[in-house]
Amino acid sequence: MKRKTKLIHGGISTDPATGAVSFPIYQVSTYKQEGVGGHKGYEYSRTGNPTRFALEELIKDLEGGEAGFAFGSGMAAMTAVMMLFNSGDHVILTDDVYGGSFRVMTKVLNRLGIDSTFVDTSNLEAIISAIKPNTKAIHLETPTNPLLKITDIEQVAKLAKEHGLLTIVDNTFSTPYWQNPIELGADIVLHSATKYLGGHSDVVAGLAVVNSKKLAEDLHFVQNSTGGVLGPQDSWLLIRGIKTLGIRMEETEKNTAAIVDFLQGHPAVKKVYYPGLETHPNHSIAKKQVRGFGGMVSFDVGSAENADNLLSKIHYFTLAESLGAVESLISVPARMTHASIPIERRAELGITDGLVRISVGLEDVEDLIDDLKQALE
Ligand SMILES: *Cc1c(COP(=O)(O)O)cnc(C)c1O
């Protein structure tokens, strides 16, 4: 099955009970048993729900794993995966990881004895020097946010195997349409399905896919024990969103290429960050690892004042956090998503006050470029 076909026919695409082509929303908490333990595979919806299972089977197929799991948010998925570890264990993560992932590791899981170190994972030496006797996993985000740094998943997964560590990849930005970490050697894939997979700014959800029966058993145990599951209505919305992921990503790619081209030629733009650019420091890894560079672009307009001017004049890019939706979004990371990072650390990472991040949507690209043009004047 090719990729667009799999988005539509992967998982459990029709309801075996009725033939319904849109998988039904099983809005139910419990299931009638014919005798004690005599059930049809479902006992209680925290443990399993048919609509959620249809989504879990779909993401499993899309990522090429052993089992999929749906959670109430990306952070719930991440937390459940970290609950595979024990007090005293250590995890290495990408330094410019999503702010919420940084927060849960350093303000919540640290209290339970799960220790973390953040390194530039695009530098293999930096990972090697962070490995400790109690290290259990390497968590990668690639591309990163907002500077779109790329880590070589295959190389890191190989290193992780040599040291007996799990490789976990947050695949939110690329989606399984453009990047398949399990094929590259990863053990666990995470998604904030709130972004491209849902794609319509209407659902908060998280997904995890694992590559072995043992991890599937362990993660199902955590999911059922801690209970952060996704409800049937939101599971259905995600299945619906995923059906059009292919055409959305293809169209986003075209729009983004045109916008990057425009931004690069504009005198008010000091620097453009996009992994599809040959001048991007990790472009060669990106080319090897992804089929598309995605719809996230960051660019520097020089100062907070210039960024504010741009924001005050822009029409079609909505000022908002989040990304990956049909509508184009714009944000200023230093004062929004990354405001909690100390200013010196932001400077080290290159997240300047004039850095603007856009998530390119599906409007006509001529409108988007005209809009940027008038707002940059
Ligand atoms: C949004 C996001 C998350 C968190 O997901 P939620 O659904 O908001 O909980 C994790 N990782 C990345 C890369 C994200 O963009």
Automatic annotation (TrEMBL):
Its cofactor is pyridoxal 5'-phosphate. Pfam families: Cys_Met_Meta_PP. Coiled coil: none annotated. It comes from the Bacteria. Keywords: Pyridoxal phosphate. The keyword Nucleotidyltransferase does not apply. Belongs to the trans-sulfuration enzymes family. This is Bifunctional cystathionine gamma-lyase/homocysteine desulfhydrase.
